[in-house]
Every structure is written in structure tokens, then in C-alpha cells.
Design brief:
heterodimer, A: 2-enoyl-CoA Hydratase, Chain A, domain 1, two-stranded antiparallel ribbon, B: mainly beta, 4 strands, 13% helix, 35% strand, YlzJ-like protein (chain B), YlzJ (chain B), ClpP/TepA (chain A), peptidase activity (chain A), ATP-dependent protease ClpP, protease subunit (chain A)
Chain lengths: 243, 68
């Protein structure tokens, strides 16, 4: 029998074997063991922080319209006792970033932030907004003045607006971390650290030294600290009366 | 072509409308899925959820097909 003669019979066989194959695949699927619901929720702030302008989809972005409802849900859900924020961001929209930072800072539940890789520009206020902050040893944070891309209409007005915007960022960071306003402005406006640009790039331990971040650490330390904060938070709460 | 301009690349080459429409956000219990539309199917690009357990669910693994 030649190969060609066999051909017409093949389709039904394929169907049959396809069905068996599906069954084998289904049987072979591993089931992830069901874990208990986690009392810690995680929020990742990655890529660009997207504001009013929608960036093309090939950009990795954190959209505030996604994050804000998640923060509200985390605040409201009684099963969620703490929130871990993981940052690896290049910055982005100032207003969106500040909005997120304010939301995190005003949460009643303990929040721990962890900067991994980079927490640049508007990532800085978000990194300091938590109850406690960590930075990985190799992570960096670029502190530089606020600027605008695109066409600028009305230069003096724009400058004043930008200046005020920068003040808002500076004020937030100063209020939520141990750094002083002078120190932060020094870092922001210093020359020679970034080639042909003003600003400073602080790495891991340096950010802690400057008072921006509380501790150098990673995931383990961050979760441990969050659990400690959750326990403290529980103690402060008045115990429910059992009738 | 070599461009020498003060304008940002976004202004010179604006993103195409189609780039935006091929992605869709789908609601799932406990979060959202960013999916790329591929004909009738959806392919998961990213899971947006705060529950870490959801990331262990093989149903929501990026790269997989998803039926809403």
C-alpha cells in the first residue's frame, strides 16, 4: 500500500486521535494547590505611569484608572490586611503619579513599598508614600526637575505651572520621608551627576542614606515588615465585643 | 531617512489607531485581563489584579487563549 492511498482515511483518524490528545492533555494538567486567601495584596507599579494621554500599547504602562479602583478595593475589603507595592517605573505623568501616591499615603491599612530596578522621577513620591519603604541594593532612583514634552504655548505661564507642580512633588516627598527640602532640591538640581542634565541618580543604600527610603532590602524583608505592621495595626484596633 | 528635529518621535510618527483597538480589557472576578484580540480569540497579555494567588492560576497565565 502506498502512502497516497492511505491519505483519504486519515482525517477521521486525526479527529479521533485529536480527541484523545485533548483528553490526555486535560488529564495531564497539573492543579495548583489551593492556597488560603492571602491577607496581603500586591500592586505592581511598572513601566510608565500613564495619565491623561494614552500611550501606544507596546509601552508597558501603569494606568491610574486601573490602579485607583484596586486601591479602593484593597482599602474596603476586610480580608485584605496589608498592601505591598512593587515599583519598577521610569516615571510618567506627574498628576497621575501624585494621585496614586496620595491614595496610598491615605490608606488606613499598612502599606510597604519596594523599589526594584528603578523608581525614577514620579516613582519617587510613590516609593515614599507607604507606611514603610524598601529599596533593593541594586535599584536606582533618579531625582530630577519636572519637565514637559511636546509643544509649549505661553512660556512664562508654563514655567510657573511647572514650578508649582514641582513644588507639589517636593512637598509630598518631604512630608512622607526623612529627607529635608534643601537636600531634595540639591539632589534635584545638582549638575554633573547625569550627563548634560541636572539631577541625581541615587542607588540602593544611597537612597537610604539621604533619608528618602527607610531600608535596603528585598521581598523577604518587605513581607516580614508588612506582617509586623499588620500585627501592630491589629493591636491598635479595638477588639470586637463578643456577646 | 535620518530625522533631526526637536519634536518627539510621537509627534512625527503618531501611533496608529489599530494599535489601540487590537487590545481589550476584559473583566474577570477579582481583576482585569489585558488581552490581545486575535480574530475571535483573545490572548492574555497581562493580568491586573492585586491578589497574588490569582497569578498562580493557570487560567490567567499570559500567552494563553482566553474565552470571556
Amino acid at each position: 500500500m502506498t502512502y497516497d492511498q492511505e491519505q483519504p482515511q486519515k482525517p477521521p483518524e486525526q479527529d479521533k486521535s485529536g480527541g484523545i490528545l485533548d483528553k490526555i492533555q486535560q488529564l495531564g494538567q497539573t492543579n495548583v494547590p489551593q492556597m488560603e486567601a492571602s491577607n496581603i495584596h500586591v500592586l505592581t507599579i511598572i513601566g510608565q505611569i500613564e495619565g491623561h494621554m494614552q500611550l501606544p500599547p507596546q509601552n508597558k504602562t501603569t494606568k491610574y484608572e486601573h490602579v485607583i479602583p484596586q486601591l479602593v478595593a484593597a482599602e474596603q475589603n476586610p480580608n485584605i490586611e496589608g498592601l505591598l507595592l512593587i515599583l519598577n517605573t521610569v516615571g510618567g505623568d506627574v498628576e497621575a503619579g501624585l494621585a496614586l501616591a496620595e491614595m496610598v499615603a491615605s490608606m488606613s491599612k499598612p502599606t510597604v513599598t519596594l523599589v526594584l530596578g528603578g523608581g525614577h522621577s514620579i516613582g519617587v513620591p510613590i516609593a515614599v508614600s507607604g507606611s514603610y519603604s524598601f529599596i533593593a541594593e541594586s535599584a536606582t532612583m533618579t531625582i530630577h526637575p519636572v519637565r514637559l514634552t511636546g509643544l509649549v504655548i505661553g512660556v512664562p505661564q508654563s514655567f510657573e505651572y511647572l514650578d508649582k507642580m514641582q513644588d507639589r512633588v517636593v512637598r509630598f516627598v518631604v512630608n512622607h520621608s526623612a529627607i529635608t527640602e534643601e537636600e531634595l532640591k540639591d539632589l534635584m538640581l545638582s549638575k554633573g551627576n547625569l550627563t548634560r542634565d541636572i539631577g541625581t541618580n541615587v542607588i540602593g543604600a544611597e537612597a537610604v542614606e539621604k533619608g528618602l527610603i527607610k531600608e535596603v532590602g528585598g521581598l523577604g524583608q518587605a513581607i516580614k515588615k508588612l506582617n509586623e505592621l499588620i500585627d501592630e495595626n491589629k493591636k491598635d484596633e479595638p477588639e470586637e465585643v463578643v456577646q | 531617512m535620518i530625522l533631526y528635529t526637536y519634536q518627539s518621535s510621537h509627534t512625527v510618527f503618531p501611533p496608529e489607531e489599530q494599535d489601540f483597538t487590537s487590545y481589550e480589557m476584559l473583566e474577570i472576578p477579582g481583576g482585569q485581563l489585558m488581552c490581545e484580540k486575535n480574530g475571535e480569540d483573545y490572548i492574555i497579555c497581562r493580568l491586573l489584579a492585586t491578589d497574588p494567588n490569582m497569578y498562580l492560576n493557570p487560567k490567567y497565565t499570559p500567552g494563553q487563549k482566553f474565552k470571556p
